[in-house]
Amino acid sequence: MPTAAETFAGWALDLRLENVPADAQRAACRQLLDGIGCAIASARLDAVPFAIEAAARISAPEEATVLGDGHRAPAPIAALANGALVHGLDFDDTHQTALVHATAAVLPAALAVGEETGATGAEVLAAAMGGYEIVIRLGAAFPHAFHARGFHATSVCGVFASAAVAARLYGLDAAAAADAFGIAGSQAAGSLEFLNTGSNTKQLHPGLSAAAGITAARLAAAGAEGPASILEGPYGLYRSYLGEQVDPASLTAELGERWEVTRITTKPYPACQLVHASLDALATVLERIPDAAAIDTMTFTVPEGSVPIVCEPAEAKRAPRTPYEGKFSLAYCAAAIVQDRAVTIGSFTPEQLARTSVLELAARVGAVTSDFAGPPADAPGMVEVVLRDGTTLHGEVAASRGGPEDPLSDDELLEKFVANVERDGARELADAVLALAEQPSLKPIVEAAT
């Protein structure tokens, strides 16, 4: 029987767009559009200057372009920078069950190797479709388990998606593509320790995994071998990282029949996905809150798995030290949405983080745990707001906005993209990405995105 890596590799190489439902293709193009918009916004706001500078120091051969910047670099280095840009504002999409930023795991390799090889838009889209299904299925096999063990699933699982995307665009055969998987497994990494320091390493994770995936495919093309049992083996991904034994057949079940790309959440807030349902619940009662000073306490009900990521340690979350730490603070995000009636990419500047009125309200935000048994990102949002006049308000939503049950409309997606890009030609760029399969090359998209 083939291993999971061999099955994934063979399927991803053989995938043909004519066999992909129109709604799945449309979903992938929507997410790629959103990812490009997030990357341009990151470049415009200088969110990850270290990634851009590092890429600029390695300029030959000039194989691919850094979005929003225009610098050209070797494909792995351009992918590193673009991965950091896509994820730099934490405004990029999330698959809630897998808890992976799917586009950040797919887009950097697809653009870099697609540009390097002169691939058509259809070829890039087909490669991306395979990458999406792989990263989501790897993360969803044990929902939230990587995060519970201190690993960033986007990075750990994303390296395999990047390797698959690169292997397809480089024209590897099935055996070499499986080797690329095995090589990628030795580079699967991404620590959540940034949560305890406010550092920005998480921004780098998708870029690092993209560069590693491309390198793995290049090594396999040159004859390097990798263990085909990298996913289910005794020292494979799941046993080594999670202490779990995985059924290979469960990872690859219904490939080409069930399209997880259609179940990706597009973020309306540039913050950790685990705060979104809570913010949506709070938004349902905002009109009944006169101002931040009118609130005595706010108490959110959250799943247990969310607590160490967005709620604790409580004192640190109530006074985030860095913009990225603010994005992982339910207390800060809740206080900001009360103060400003919105949470935007401008909500996390050092000046905004230091506002006395917001910090004073954040100090009155608490959380209790629910008995929700599913993946934390799938949990409903619930909040109790007690006003100083004794009024108690209850807000609740079944799930966060932007997900498969309540997706952003095409108009809302375009509005987000245009706001992120903030330049002339944004709508024309959006049209080109949404019609990716019709593009003879990536050149017009890359040029418009720099």
SSE diagram, text form:
Elements: H1 4-14, H2 22-44, H3 49-56, E1 64-65, E2 72-73, H4 75-87, H5 102-117, H6 121-140, H7 145-148, H8 153-170, H9 174-185, H10 201-221, H11 237-242, H12 248-252, H13 276-283, E3 295-303, H14 307-311, H15 314-318, H16 323-327, H17 330-340, H18 350-353, H19 356-362, E4 365-370, E5 381-387, E6 392-397, H20 410-421, H21 426-434, H22 443-448
Helix pairs in contact: 1-6, 1-8, 1-9, 2-4, 2-6, 2-20, 3-4, 4-5, 4-10, 5-6, 5-8, 5-10, 6-8, 8-9, 8-10, 9-10, 13-17, 17-19
List the keywords:
2-methylcitrate dehydratase PrpD; 7% strand; 4-stranded mixed β-sheet; alpha+beta; 450 residues; 2 domains; 22 helices; 60s Ribosomal Protein L30, Chain: A; single chain
CATH superfamily of the largest domain: 2-methylcitrate dehydratase PrpD
Tally of distinct domains: 2
| Class by SSE composition | alpha+beta
User: Based on the structure given, which CATH architecture of the largest domain is correct?
Assistant: Orthogonal Bundle
Widest sheet, order of strands: 4-3-5-6
Mean pLDDT: 97
Count of beta strands:
6
Write down the CATH topology of the largest domain. Answer: 2-methylcitrate dehydratase PrpD
Distance between the termini: 46 Å
The arrangement of helices and strands along the chain is HHHEEHHHHHHHHHHEHHHHHHEEEHHH
